[in-house]
Fold each of these.
Amino acid sequence: MSKKVRVRFAPSPTGPLHMGGVRTALYNYLFAKKNNGDFILRIEDTDEKRFVPGATEYIINALKWCGIEPNEGESYGGEYGPYTQSQRLKMYAPYAQELVDNGHAYYAFDTADDLNVVRDQAKEMGLANWQYNAITRSSMKNSTTLSKEIVAEKIANGDPYTVRMKMPRNQEVKFHDDIRGWITVNTNNLDDKVLLKETGMPTYHLANIIDDHTMNITHVIRGEEWLPSAPLHVLLYEAFGWESPAFSHLPLILRPDGKGKLSKRDGDKLGFPVFPIDWMSAEGEKYSGYKEGGYFPEAFINMLALLGWNPGDNQELFSLDELVNLFSLERVGKSGARFDPDKTKWFNQQYLRAKSDIALAELIIADNLVPADTDKNHLAIVCSLMKERATFLQDIITDGDYFFNDIESYDEKTLKKKWKEQTPAIMEDLISTLEGIEDFNTASIEAAFSALLSEKELGFGQVGPGFRLLVTGKGAGPSMFDICSALGKDKVLDRMKTGLVKINAIKA
Ligand code: GLU
């Protein structure tokens, strides 16, 4: 029997979760569900300097809002916990020791000052990037250069040390990436990464692979920025004698102009969110989110799914269940996926249109976009009329403000171009016609309106714009017969009469 698929999303709580991170979580989620596996949330907080309070809670809430919740992990529990690395600290040092004991790692006693000195010297000699590696380690203070006795003495003395990976010289590291194929890297290009810091804290690399191993992770699916770390990870698995999980490195998400990676700062600069939900930094800087921007989580997720993966045909709209069914790593591309904010709006529009009128009304009420005592059924009628033109729920309320409020102003362009000398008289006739309707509904209003037009030999253009302007204040919108039916006879007549007085005054 093959092993149960177990994947993890392993963010570091260094700030809010960028939409690239959400996509990584989504692909992990889809892969897990598709393969009847587990989707685990692990918080990698070993970098104390970059820790940001509130970031873990943000990550958990963001995944919840997106509807891609882990079935195991931080705040979800499970057999492999704790799922936050700072709560697992005791377990890492013995593994680092094991690597020292079997010759794959060593103690390094160089202080930060020592390292700065060699770096500066290298710079003076014109070497841009000095690295602690298979060659330079022989001139540094570490357990490969110092005698056993001195090393033992230093440790007994409590001298600070780090544990570094003993990167082999001139060895080919070959591993398979499920998206990129075979990858070969020569170890001469890799440095002796710190595995255990002076504080006794593991670095990302050590904690990450120990946790992946001890949590029985079968597939590592993460962003392309971790590809350069993969050879070290492969070597660490080998050094421990562990089976390595399968690797997949997802393509970058590019800015809308295709020029470079979409960064945390781009969003508010370019006018679209890059975060799932709003985030307020400790400095009081606000980063806007899709949720507060009025996006449906289904639309956001649908858009993200297609940012790097494709179904192989032209279908664009997918429910989460459909995505689970169709998802495969083979259909994830290698090259960067360009983010398109307009397309994201299009997705929202599609999801908005697909919702029933009553569901839209309920969402509008739940989001407090209307006063709490708004009649749901009336609101549903408004939604039925406005939804074809709306991208966000808020548009229904903003563009359809005349369903809720009296008319304060009249569209200037329409007033100027369509309100003619004879319009007031025509409107008076229309008022009398509408007054005569007993059962005031879409069909009866339309019939009376058409009868008036033929009786007076008027074209639609002589009546329609004025009618709309008086009742809605606007120059365009859904069918006037539907609007009037939704507003009711009294309100329509009242608006037409007061509107006529106001417009006559404006025109005078
Ligand atoms: N903690 C890493 C991050 O913040 C995880 C990388 C990985 O998935 O291995 O993205």
Amino acid sequence: MKVLVINAGSSSLKYQLIDMDNEGVLAKGLIERIGLDKAIIGQTILGKKSKVEERLADHSAALKVVLDALVGQDAPLKSIEEIDAVGHRVVHSGEKFCTSVKLDDGTIADIEKISDLAPLHNPANLMGIKACLNILPSKPAVAVFDTSFHSTMPDHAFMYALPYDLYKDHQIRKYGFHGTSHLFVSSEANKALGGKKSKVIVCHLGNGASLSAVVDGKCVDTTMGLTPLEGLMMGTRSGDIDPSVVEFVMQKTGQTIGETTNMLNKKSGVFGVSGVSSDFRDVLQAEKDGNKQASLAIEMFVYRVKKYIGSYMAAMNGLDAIAFTAGVGENSPILRERLCKELDGIGILLDDKKNQATVGEFGQISSKKSKVKVFVIPTNEELVIARETIKYGFSK
Ligand code: AMP
């Protein structure tokens, strides 16, 4: 079976074509600047890379480019009919969907209704869905949500201490994001632990960053909230702050609410504190060069991840494993070392050599003395979407 995985943003379309017989990637690509002067089309088809520029009016035009590239002599398909199903990343499920869902007029209308919870993302995801349904109307299509892995959180974890009517009337609560990554990495960690009952903390540390606490495969808490702004300090997002900061900043600076929210999402975090970059590699280099703000930004990031690790150990009454994933978690031994430093008091101890040697690949990096196992597990969100597409696309 061949599954096309689509991740549509407001002006971008990312895709993978996966052969589910061996879970191999036949083709992948990223089209950026859709609807602007010239789109940038980067693709790898059967291992062959290409990059071209061309004006693409909308997501339908972008999808046509993708399908044209997938079919032909030096391409993985003889006809688009060989695509068995299409899986779409959708950011927000609200409380409507606890699992992935097969797309039809009814479920699409439901996702449209949820859009006020993710106004920047769900409408863009829907553009990809509609473009696919126009071109491949007879193929099963499935929405796989960033939020649904976290739907198992108990109410005492997902509720905000606000007037209850705000939850009842407007579903204002913690939802969590990066769910496909947390699902993949926690289940791989569980396998590595021998498939027994387990308590795992997944540290998804990329430009966006979130932790989840997972007991026996089920999420019991996560750091992101109603939106991805809550929780850890991130590349450009502030993470947790006192909510009163918002009004105070507006009074002091004259910024509007929109400008202040934009500041919290795009100008804060590691970028805002360091004044250097949102990219950890640049900030680590600046720290090496003696930049104090860069050093402070890294220390704050590390301290906050450690605090959440401790609080999730308490929430789960124990911990079997920590799994690092995403850009920083997979590729930065130095940040993993700093994240685990002085956690020996709570049973977490790295093997320095294994940590240094494990970059971008699976590995167990804890020392033999460590009570808690520490893994590096490369995430694979597209594969989760493809697996979910098979599971939900062909069920009655
Ligand atoms: P992601 O959002 O998962 O693609 O991760 C992107 C983030 O990972 C960026 O902030 C990068 O700086 C960071 N990253 C990638 N490789 C490294 C590395 N070798 N060392 C430190 N940070 C890295």
